[in-house]
Amino acid sequence: MAMPPLGGLGASRFQPHNQQLQSNTSRSPSPDEMKLQISNEPLSLVYRTAVQKLNELLAPETGEAGLQGVAASGMDFSPEAVAERILSFATAGITSFRDRHTDQGGEEQLNGFMSLIRDAIDQGFQEARDILDGLGVLQGDISANTDRTYQLIQDGLNRFEEKTRNSGPE
C-alpha cells in the first residue's frame, strides 16, 4: 500500500515542528526527525490514518467535509480515547447512509454500512501499521497499544451493530 503523504495525515502535531524547521533552516525534516516525531505519538498516526481512510471511503456518504479537523493539538492518544473517537466518527454516518440507500431494507442498510466502516478501519489500521513498521517503531508498547486500540474499536463496532440491529432504523 502506498504511504499517505504527511500533509494528508492532518498532522497538527507535526506542523509546529515542521514550520520551525522550515523557517529556521528552509529544509524538510529528515527521515530521522520524522521517525522521532511519529515514535513520540504513534497512536496519533494510527488515529489520523484510520480517519483519513474513513474520510476516503465515506466521502460519498458524508460529502466533501468528511471527518476533517480531527487531529487537534493536545489530544489524548491513549488506546481508549483513540478507539472512542474513531468509533464516534465511523458510526456517525449511519443516518446519511440510510438516507442514500432508501431502496434497501433496514437489515441490508446496516450490513452495508457496517461493511463499509469495518473495511475503512481495517485499511486505515493496516496503513498505519505499515508506516510504523517501516519506521522500525512497531514493537513493544507501540505494537501492543495499536493492537489494543484496534480490538477496542472492533468491540465497539460489535456493540453498535447489535444495538442498532435491535433498535431498527432510526
Structure commentary:
With 170 residues, this protein is mainly alpha-helical. It has one domain. The protein has helices spanning 15-25, 31-40, 42-62, 79-91, 94-100, 106-134, 140-167. The protein starts with 14 loop residues before the first helix and ends with a helix. The relative contact order is 0.15. Residues 1-26 and 65-73 have low confidence and may be disordered.
How does the SSE layout of this entry go?
Layout: H1 15-25, H2 31-40, H3 42-62, H4 79-91, H5 94-100, H6 106-134, H7 140-167
Helix pairs in contact: 3-4, 3-6, 4-7, 6-7
Task: Give descriptors for this structure.
single chain, 170 residues, mainly alpha, 70% helix, disordered N terminus
Q: CA-to-CA gap between the ends? A: 37 Å
Q: How is the main sheet built?
A: none
Counting helices, strands and paired strands, the structural category is mainly alpha
Query: What is the ordering of alpha helices and beta strands?
Result: HHHHHHH
What is the 3D shape? elongated
Offer a quick outline of the entry.
It is built from 7 helices and no strands. By secondary structure, the chain is mainly alpha-helical.
